[in-house]
Amino acid sequence: MRISGPVASRRCCAAVIAAVVTCSTTLSGLDLVADGRPMPSVSAPKLDWRPCVQGGRFDCATARVPLDYGNPRGRTIDLAVVKRKATGPGRRIGTLFFNPGGPGGPGTVQMPQEIGVFPREVRERFDIVSWDPRGVGNSTAVNCFTRRADADAWDAGKPAGFPVGEQERRTWIAAFEALTRRCQQRDPELLRHVSTADTARDLDQLRQAVGDPRLTYLGISYGTILGATYANLFPAKVRAMVLDSNIAPQAWTNHASGEDPRLPTFLRMGSDRSAAATLDQFLTLCGSTTTASCGFSAGSPKATRDKFDRLMGRLRQRPVETWTYGKTVGDAVNGLHIVHPGWTDLAGRLQDLWHGRVPAPSAPPPALPVPTPYTGLEQAAAVLCGDSPNPRDPGVYHALEEASAIRAGDTGRFWTWAAEPCATWSAVAANGYNGPWNNRTAHPVLVVGTTYDPATPYAGAQAMAEELANARLLTNNGYGHAALVNPSGCITAHESRYFIDGTLPPPGTACRQDMPPFSAPKPHGGVATGGGGMAGVVRNRS
Fold it and tell me: In this structure, are residues 278 and 418 in contact, taking their beta carbons and an 8 Å threshold?
């Protein structure tokens, strides 16, 4: 999940807006402007599909939509859209829309990168479409710098990962205060109209543009709160919706209280504790195998955990060139997202640091079928900070960090500071959505949660399934962030059947991943073989 919610001078306004939206939508269940009026109707955009690259597999288009759905005749913005056509001749069902998470994840980049892990049956039966949400990437984007070199210089001037010590805390806070000022000077109007609700409205426009009467959707991480928002703004328009690695709606909105929150977003979500539990599993499993399988192994789980703690202590005192304690913890949390090959690669970097060596840089990603967009931190901040309440005083984050470290260790420090940029962010969503979350959808939603997820806890999936009026929970007993990119043939089979004919897994169904961490590949079913068999089924739980 990318990181980067509301501000002191705007706290009163935010509370008023939250109260109006929550009350109004509770009464009517309609998509409403902040003052309680129904959103005006808007004609669907036209999509002029052309090959993204001559002879390539993907088509690209641009959708023009209103900046403010409350004023559809005003300013418009562009959405960059990408499509992979269904591969099964004569068997196409419709379009599957995909949001890869974030906030700030550019779908025109990540969908082509991840197309191979979509279930084969789904690729055969659906056009798969993604887009860069408003404010992001190749769409009309939040960009607070006139030159890329200025953005790079700003990024290099702040601590990597999170700040350590009083001087670094001052530098970090000053850097994000400066970023906020830059953003307000560039395009303050755009900042107020990049909310999750605005993007849900864009999604409905795209659904209409491709001619689907109802939405088929897969959302990962932040894409789950986007999906839940769509499901409650447009409940009659849901055909099938899979939400994978979930954010609990009440954690995202701070229970729509309108009050200054005590905890930042990611601590309300429990990301710190979930990351700590996942890191502990990483070290336990690493220590349970040999260095041939996990390069950081010290021969036993306890010895490997102790080795990690000693390494963190050394880095606090003496970084390995640019690899500081804060950078290394951040790298560890992010390195836990994808098990294969991510956990093996992370173990290798930790072992390099143990020996005082600078880890080798990651391999460059494959060539893209779209222009490589600018995706600065301000794009994620604009969505998170405008949508999700966070403490407004930068001075409280050090105490919050220490409290989180007591319950979650090193990962608590990372997740606390991940939301600090919102302390001084100066824009609030003009037409956001804070609930209700229990409008009954035309068809049920399938919620997928992984038991050891370093970003979105399994408890978030349980909360999402309970909060939505019509949902089924599917448990993935495994590791990493998003079942889509940590394959399970069992999960794949259930998702494929659900997308194609609406069949839900039985209540209490739990699956396991195809490949445990630090193991040799053993393809069997689902993504591993390009199929969709029931490999990996664990049990049905009542």
Answer: no
Distance CA 180, CA 59 (A): 36
Identify which of 467, 521, 1, 523 has the alpha carbon closest to the alpha carbon of residue 278.
1
DSSP E strands, 165-318: 215-220, 238-244
**CA separation (Å) from 222 to 254, 268, 321?**
16, 15, 34
Maximal CA-CA distance, the chain: 66
- CA 227/CA 464 separation, integer angstroms: 11
Residue 539 class from Cβ within 10 Å (0-12 exposed, 13-18 middle, 19+ buried)? exposed
| Angle of CA points 512, 513, 518, to nearest 5° | 125
* Distance between CA atoms of residues 461 and 471, nearest Å: 11
What's the pTM value of the predicted model, to 2 decimals? 0.90
Q: How far is CA 313 from CA 162, 195, 278, 359, in A?
A: 15, 40, 20, 18
Q: Is the Cα torsion angle 334, 335, 336, 339 positive or negative in sign?
A: positive
Write out pLDDT tens, residues 376-424. Answer: 999 999 999 999 999 999 999 999 999 999 999 999 999 999 999 999 9
Half-sphere exposure of 406 (CA within 13 A, CB side): 5
